[in-house]
Design a protein that fits this description.
279 residues, alpha/beta, six-stranded parallel sheet, 9 helices
């Protein structure tokens, strides 16, 4: 596995990569969710590039940019074990040589779900992903479905800007009790960690109800009420068509949907979703 740190060194490395190139962008603090994407990319591409970069543009005021987990040496070991061929750890100045004047505006897609409480987050995310797609020129790029909104935005961006990269969504990886793996899970207290799996369990019950009667009437309220009985505060519970993120009607016609939620504990904000199909 080759480790590169500067943009110029990466560009030299990129020129020597042969065959189908897969990209797995990360912000580090790698866990099994990231590693599953690397393994998936390894199966579908000849060369796998992993980036580790904590992007300042997608952190808002009062968010945890300064304290976000940074474990580069451990991350490199994990990436190598999962099959990465190249790991690029750019510095901020590699991607933002000067103050960023222009940004990708993701429009209404960035105003739904998490975007309501994180203004500018998805514009910052899309901007850095666009930079990686332009510099790395991967044939395939892999993103986890745990952030379904992010995945939907990146797919639409690739379509709208005629990016010649296939965007691939990898399934959410969960702990034994159903909690979606996240770098921010380490912020949970012991009691909060015991409570947190209720998020996924509640969403599963909501999906079962929706599939049973194909109606959203009262289902979101019951899901919200159940989450409100947990030790976290509920930020949102929403049902959207996927991947358009358009509002769903009460009676769900056939198609793909996502039920998504965000909750906040004392130091951790958790998101989760289930993408499902109505026949």
């Amino acid at each position: 596995m080759k480790i590169v740190r500067s943009k110029s060194e990466f560009q030299q490395t990129r020129s020597r990569l042969q065959g189908v190139v897969g990209l797995v962008p990360t912000m580090g603090a790698l866990h099994e969710g990231h590693l599953s994407l690397i393994r998936q990319a390894k199966q579908e591409a000849d060369q796998v590039v992993v980036t580790i970069f904590i992007n300042p543009l997608q952190f808002g005021e009062g968010e945890d940019y300064e304290t976000y987990p940074r474990t580069p040496e451990v991350d490199l070991e994990k990436a190598q074990s999962a099959g990465a061929d190249v790991v690029w750890l750019p510095e901020v100045h590699d991607l933002y040589e000067q103050k960023q004047t222009l940004m990708i505006d993701v429009g209404e897609l960035g105003e739904e779900l998490c975007g309501k409480n994180r203004p500018g987050h998805f514009n910052g995310m899309a901007t850095v992903v666009m930079k990686f797609l332009q510099i790395i020129r991967p044939d395939r790029a892999y993103f986890g479905q745990k952030d379904a909104q992010q995945l939907a935005i990146i797919k639409q961006m690739a379509t709208d800007f005629l990016i010649n990269t296939t965007i691939v969504g990898g399934p959410t990886v969960r702990d034994h009790d159903g909690l979606a793996l996240s770098s921010r899970n380490q912020y949970l207290t012991e009691q909060e960690r015991k409570d947190a799996p209720g998020l996924y369990q509640t969403l599963k019950k909501g999906v079962a109800e929706l599939k049973e009667n194909n109606s959203r009437k009262d289902v979101l309220k019951r899901v919200t009420d159940a989450l409100s009985n947990m030790e976290a505060s509920v930020e949102y519970v929403e049902l959207k068509a996927f991947p358009t993120l358009q509002a769903s009607t009460n009676e769900l016609p056939g198609g793909e949907y996502v039920i998504a939620a965000a909750i906040r504990y004392s130091k951790a904000r958790l998101i989760d979703n289930i993408i499902f199909t109505v026949e």
